[in-house]
Amino acid sequence: MDLFNESLVVVGRVFTILPLLLIVTLFMGKRSIGELPVFDFMIILTLGSVTGADIAEPNVHHIPIAVAIVALCVLQRLVSQWSIVSRRFGKMVTFEPTVVFYNGKFLVHQLKKMRYSLDNVLQMLREKDIFDLAEIEMAIIEANGRLTVLKKSAQQPVTRQDLQVQTASTGISLPVIVEGKIYPDALKYRERDEEWLLQELKKRGVAVEDVFLATLNRQNELLLFEKQPNNLQQIPPVQH
Question: Where are the transmembrane segments (predicted)?
Fold first, then answer.
């Protein structure tokens, strides 16, 4: 009889805790299940452990477990908001993007620092249908562990190679302003300085504090994205 009662308790907890987990996951947002930054990964592991203990052990009190799940959800939401408000805090709770291949060479010290083997990177390249390293100009391991690749201009789509059109590579566009903050290192890399940047902004009638993102490519072409509190542009209704 005790076994039957305990089984009923477990079944009841499954039917109550899983809907709560669904609500919590939806509240935390797509970011948690799509990118899995370090902190979100820890939250999900903890949620799994807490939920497992609640379901598997009938002697554990049910209400405190539910409170713990809600508390974890609120903590994750707060950390996510702080990461958006403060870039410095955001960098503290996640990894930085790391360049692992540049200008025809693997950056071995970067791979060792991340404890990535060459086989790991080659597999990730093959998953992107890249089997010839000569096609690559730059490869970056992003904060979520995924690999992004910048191909050489001759290997990029739009049939430039087929049309035998010789074009110089635009390279990677470096962010020179992020949320109103100027990045002097990026300007220096492009052989420009802050005075030049301010002059370009003045020509366009834009103040630094009004810039959400500004990038500079190899041809020193400045691309600006201004802050827009109320974006009136219609967004396509993308649905799953």
Answer: 12-29
Q: List, for residues 38-84, the tens digit of each pLDDT value.
A: 677 777 778 888 887 777 777 777 788 888 888 888 888 888 788 77
SS3 of 203-238: HCCCCHHHEEEEEECCCCCEEEEECCCCCCCCCCCC
Residue 177, φ and ψ in degrees, nearest 5: -140, 130
Torsion of CA 239, 233, 83, 87, to 10 degrees: 140
pTM reported for the whole predicted model: 0.56
Tokens of 236: 């396509």
220: phi then psi, degrees, rounded to nearest 5: 60, 35
3-state helix, strand, coil in the chain (%, to 5): 50, 15, 35
Per the rule left: phi > 0, alpha: psi between -120 and 50, beta: everything else, 191 is left
